[in-house]
Amino acid sequence: MRLSRFFLPVLKEAPSDIEIVSHRLMVRAGMIRQEAAGIYAWLPLGLIVLKKIEQIVREEMVRAGAIECLMPTLQLADLWRESGRYDDYGQEMLRITDRHERELLYGPTNEEMITEIFRAYVKSYKALPLNLFHIQWKFRDERRPRFGVMRGREFLMKDAYSFDVDEASARKAYNRMFVAYLNLFARMGLKAVPMRADTGPIGGDLSHEFIILADTGESQVFCHKDLIEMGAPGPDVDWDDLQGAVDRRTALYAATEEMHDETRFTAEVPEASRLSARGIEVGHIFYFGDKYSRPMKANITGPDGVDRPAQMGSYGVGVSRLVAGIIEASHDDSGIVWPDSVAPFGVALINLRPGDEACDAACEQAYAALAKAGKDPLYDDTDERPGGKFAKADLIGAPWQLVIGPKGLAEGAVELKRRATGEKQSVPLDAALTQLCG
Ligand code: 5CA
User: Checking CA distances to 345, which of 152, 244, 262, 299 falls within 20 to 30 Å?
Assistant: First the structure.
């Protein structure tokens, strides 16, 4: 992408009422624009990152055996009356009436709708296990939308729903999502810790929140320090037997504020290993058995010929929240430092003197080579002064900067900077391109 043709409305200053760094940087880098409280337009730079995160989530869901579908944002109120949640959900639910006076709502989650789809088609245990997911916008009329896309009213969620014949296989489905979550957050450069959590309006008795630590996090969390560095199991696990991987992580104490038990915490965790910190909830998984399938009569016939309600779980990832979460975890005073896997551009290519024949030729050569190698270069071919170009490149956070100017070129060199460390090398253009393109 040539910057002169891109739409990147970068701001020097963010509005002073912005409270946290990720929100400030997203606004300054021209990633989002607030259209109403908790409702944002995704500008091109923000959308590229959102799509990259979405794709990682999708790939890890598919790897774990889930199947993608897409349900609508609007749902019938009557469906929610079947589960009893229409009245329970209260003011967080946005209720809408259409021209035929039919009551609709903008979905805050999809347990009812997926259960309706399931019961229409699946009657036998032979079709199980089944896990369906979608990546769709949700609306929750939060009392206090804040921190930009971190707690929005309209937000993008990946939600998966598992169906099984009995509790034992439902727990396996839960474990598959548990491990998929560890892997997908690790791919984004995040250290996410699963913690025992409250189930709130979704319900059920088994639930884990996946938390990344950040001073600006909304929840207070308590855990054994070793969990932070434990790492993810990776893709090459035995997907049919994940109990060991899950047990290793659930054996150590980890709980969110609502589930925290100080007596257990001090008894189970040696003082030097106790961590009490702020965290951001980037994912939440639930096993709730027949909470929806029973009232909604989503029954299946078991191997014994007897009908029973399907055993269900649901599994959410805050896709739009993750954009902010990753920035909270990875930034410095100059701007965002994207992990390679979600960076909107792989290389910021800076031409220090557009119009200079040698600079233009070298930049065009670099741009073509980087594009061909799939490095998504952003070529700053504008007339802005060098200082402004450097500041912009630092702000938007591409992992590499390739700086080409007349002085360096006269000596046969360009400058290659690693955004994360600030480390600079002065090398011939060919050597820089070999390093970047491999
Ligand atoms: N149906 C279940 C799982 S599919 C569910 O809705 N779970 S949830 O309520 O925990 O939401 C899933 C994830 O969405 C959360 O972990 C969080 O990362 C994200 N999320 C929830 N509310 C918001 C919000 N207001 N703004 C941005 N992200 C949110």
Answer: 152
Ligand 1 within 6 A of CB of 115: no
Encode pLDDT of 361-405 as tens digits.
999 999 999 999 999 999 999 999 999 999 999 999 999 999 999
Which CATH number fits the domain 3-336, given the four candidates 3.40.1400.10, 3.30.930.10, 3.40.50.720, 3.30.420.40? 3.30.930.10
- At 225 the three-state DSSP class reads helix
Strands 347-351 and 400-404: parallel
Rounded to the nearest angstrom, the distance between the alpha carbon of 317 and the centre of ligand 1 is: 6
- Is residue 218 in contact with ligand 1, taking CB distance under 6 Å? no
Please name the CATH architecture into which domain 345-437 falls.
3-Layer(aba) Sandwich (3.40)
How do residues 236-269 score in pLDDT, each as one tens digit?
A: 999 999 999 999 999 999 999 999 999 999 999 9
From 20, 321, 328, the mutation candidate for ligand 1 (largest count of ligand atoms within 8 A of CB) is 321
Match 């990546």 to its residue by tokens: 135
Ligand 1, atom 2: closest residue by C-alpha: 316
Give residue-wise pLDDT tens across range 337-362.
999 999 999 999 999 999 999 999 99
The residues with which 158 forms a beta bridge, in sequence order, are 135, 317
Spans of all domains in the chain: 3-336, 345-437
Q: How far apart are the first and last CA of the chain?
A: 21
CA 115 to chain centroid: 25
The answer to whether the CB of 157 is under 6 A from ligand 1 is yes
User: Would the CB of 282 count as within 6 Å of ligand 1?
Assistant: yes
Q: Which residues contact 70 (CB under 8 A, 6 or more apart)?
A: 134, 135, 136
Task: Please report the atom of ligand 1 found closest to the CA of residue 153.
Answer: 25
What are φ and ψ of residue 95, in 5° steps?
-100, 140
